[in-house]
Amino acid sequence: MARIEELVDEDHQSLNVRSRSPLQDGSRSSKPVSVNSIPSSSTPFSTPSAPNGSSNLFGPAPALPPQMVSAKAHSIDEVAAYLKRTPLFMTSLDAESTEDNPELEAMRALQYEGTRAEIAQGFRESGNEMAKVKKWADGKEFYTKALAALRAERKEDEEGGEQEDRKERDIEEACYSNRALCNLELKNYRSCTLDCASTLRLNNSNIKAYYRSSLALLALKKLPEALDACKHGLAVDSTNIALQSLLQKINIQKATLDALEQKRLDRELRQKKEEAMLRNALKARTVRTRSTGQPPEMEDAAIRLVPDPLSPTSTLTFPVVILYPLHLQSDFIKAFGEEQTLAGHLDYLFPLPWDTKGDYTVQGVEAYMETVTGGLIKWGKKVPLLKVLGGGKVEVVDGIVKVNVVPKSGAAGWIEEVKRRKVGD
Predict the structure, then answer these.
(1) What are phi and psi of 289, to 5 degrees?
(2) What's the DSSP call for residue 31?
(3) Residues paired with residue 396 on neighbouring β-strands, in sequence order
(4) In 3D, which of 145, 226, 154 has the Cα closest to residue 178?
């Protein structure tokens, strides 16, 4: 019969399957490491004192790694707040995240390590990353820092030379051009044109600078300048599709604005002709006019030649205000023809809604107009308007004809009252 021998471990102890495991009775070949014995720099959070392991059905559990222990000792909000201050996980650069943050300050310091070209290139690449995700304001800031780095004085141990100068020039051109794009997207159109000009001073063959400058000028409604920039770009590369499309757009918009401008000029020219024709018509009829400089608001009511303002045979019409001084009331007639009579208008104005006594009838009223000298002249109700205005005794003030209508029974008393006021003045 074969003999079964027992196997032994490195300590020459017999293996007894019925005996407890060293892990079960707490005995271990090496002393467990206490969480508190780990240096604080190896864990992101402060760690509380804790036992080596927690007991379970099978005995003490092994201790967690220090990093996990430190994380479990804090709430989710505390962990999230810590991560927000960690440069790798930052989502914003607000005061709370950046204040007293040595890791961030260390990374910032690294940005200024190296030559001017290397520092500027680092900022340029950061700007490119921001531009790719359309964070135009952040991209603009990085490009500005890159340009500032190129303008800084060289360090004592930094070597210059033609190759280094060429590298810096290339970076400067790219930063100006890319910052122009950021300004264009941010609708900072004037700043965009300035950056494009700086780009072209460094390289007058930069197609992107011509294109972006033309877009910004178009947005500013500076069509001649936009057209000039576009044409200069096409002179460099006549096959550029973007510039060709932009040129077509500018030409269409220019044609539209030219048409609008021509309409405005035609309208102004016609208005001047109408005004000249109206002055001649008033002069030919010896109608006196005067302006006080503060005409009343009459909307579209005005002295006109109708039906054709440019025809000398047209009829003059006047806005007329009919005053009822004894009752402090009035009526307004927008277009009173020069050949029309007052009776014709009073016929459809009477009876007046506020005339409860029936004092105002066509036969029972008289009409008076103020003369140039300050007196009164009676206007016969069947006399055409032009005959009253054309005598030179009355004048049209601020484009309005004023006539006072009073009942015959009260006319004498009203005239005496007007005379007394004149004497008092």
Answers:
(1) -130, 155
(2) P
(3) 289
(4) 145
